[in-house]
Design a protein that fits this description.
Number of helices: 17
Number of strands: 14
CATH architecture of one domain: 3-Layer(aba) Sandwich
Shape: globular
CATH topology of one domain: Aminopeptidase
Helix content: 40-55%
Oligomer: single chain
């Protein structure tokens, strides 16, 4: 018999799985950071820096005392993480490196066959450019894209652009790795030098790879469709995830469920971990106060799921022309307990050390009570401190 899960219960299970029912004020030790990263599975990297980098914002939402240098140390010194692609660029546990080898091969084939290759290497021998870039790094050691600039040869396909594309191709295909960044610019080196043991590990067969992708994604979602399972790491296809779900359901390790829709839509057919009820019962109460989530937080990244689970219709509008934006360029969802109560658009003016809230929108039916406004002030004060702002304004 198919079990039914209420939308608020599915939301609570997801928040618990993503570390948002934990106390964010606990000490941000190295152990706590590693545990947080393990809870998430990976953390997305993004270049937008109107407040702070996405990966730093995602982590400080769960560990308020987190400092960006702590993550940098895990990547550059401890080498516990590597930079690769999930649905986007991400910091990923190095212990999973072998599971990215199928992705390396897939990206290599796609990039060669795609218009991307023709566009970036038009008018030149792409294979020769790629080989030249790899050979130079093999000979000289770690290099950045700026090291391939030739001011005296700024032609459209001889200057730095094809070589920058070659760097990206070699990174996406696993030939190069990123041991560190300098002012957020990638430094590239041969993957075999950066991660020698991981690079030498054998690639898993397809069956093992599918099992890994699903077994690691499932507990970080708890309630999921095959599509959501496949998209968690963007490592396997939906049909492969569907096949895994059917086999696991037959074995009793997951169960088919119907998930109610937070906005009254049709219940969704999905799967859940077999122990979802005990997980729900054991879930702690959400911490008090308000939390300002990053636009790329995994809880809101899937906009359709966010609407179904939380009734929160969130849209990231940085790439929407300003006249067409409904809210703002970098809008942060406001989480209160287990529900989203609003959103705000913020920007830090670093020259003035000032955090400006350029827009604040409470959800329908949410009142700006004294308690809620005070909680928002506290959240903004913490965010301001994190981004190096001594003052803030709303």
């Amino acid at each position: 018999m198919t079990q039914t899960i209420q939308a608020e219960d599915a939301a609570r299970l997801f928040l618990q799985a993503q570390g948002l029912l934990e106390d964010p004020s606990r000490r941000a030790t190295k152990t706590a950071l590693k545990q947080t990263l393990d809870t998430l599975g990976f953390v997305q990297v993004d270049t937008i820096n109107v407040l702070a980098r996405a990966h730093d914002l995602i982590l400080r939402t769960r560990l308020e005392g987190f400092e960006p240098s702590q993550l940098q140390a895990l990547v550059e010194q401890d080498k516990l993480l590597f930079e690769g692609f999930t649905h986007d660029a991400s910091f990923i546990p190095l212990r999973w490196y072998a599971q990215w080898k199928p992705r390396f091969r897939r990206d290599e084939a796609r990039m060669k066959a795609h218009a991307w290759w023709q566009h970036h290497f038009r008018g030149t021998d792409g294979a020769a450019v790629v080989k030249g870039v790899r050979d130079r790094i093999a000979s000289e050691g770690p290099l950045m894209s700026k090291d391939f600039e030739h001011p005296e040869k700024r032609g459209p396909w001889w200057g730095w652009k094809p070589q920058k594309a070659a760097l990206d191709f070699l990174w996406r295909s696993g030939e190069l790795a990123v041991p560190r960044r300098i002012q957020f610019h990638k430094v590239y080196d041969l993957a075999e030098r950066v991660h020698p043991e991981a690079h030498a590990a054998p690639e898993p067969d397809r069956t093992a790879h599918i099992a890994w992708a699903c077994e690691e994604a499932a507990p970080r979602l708890v309630v999921f469709t095959p599509k959501e399972l496949a998209e968690f790491f963007a490592a396997i296809g939906i049909a492969e995830a569907k096949g895994w779900c059917e086999r696991e359901a037959k074995a009793g390790r997951i169960v088919p469920v119907r998930v109610e829709d937070a906005v009254g839509g049709k219940p969704q057919a999905a799967y859940a971990l077999h122990d979802w009820k005990s997980r729900l019962k054991a879930a702690p109460d959400a911490p008090g106060g308000l939390r300002l989530l990053a636009p790329f937080d995994p809880v809101v990244r899937d906009r359709a799921r966010c609407l179904r689970r939380f009734g929160f219709d969130y849209r990231f509008e940085a790439f929407v022309p300003e006249p067409k934006r409904e809210h703002g360029y970098y809008t942060l969802p406001i989480l209160e307990g287990e529900r989203f109560v609003g959103r705000l658009d913020a920007k830090v003016h670093r020259d003035e050390a000032h955090l400006e809230v350029r827009g604040l929108w409470w959800e329908m039916g949410v009142k700006a009570t004294k308690t809620r406004v005070k909680a928002l002030d506290e959240a903004l004060e913490k965010l301001a401190a994190f981004v190096g702002a001594g003052t803030y304004s709303v």
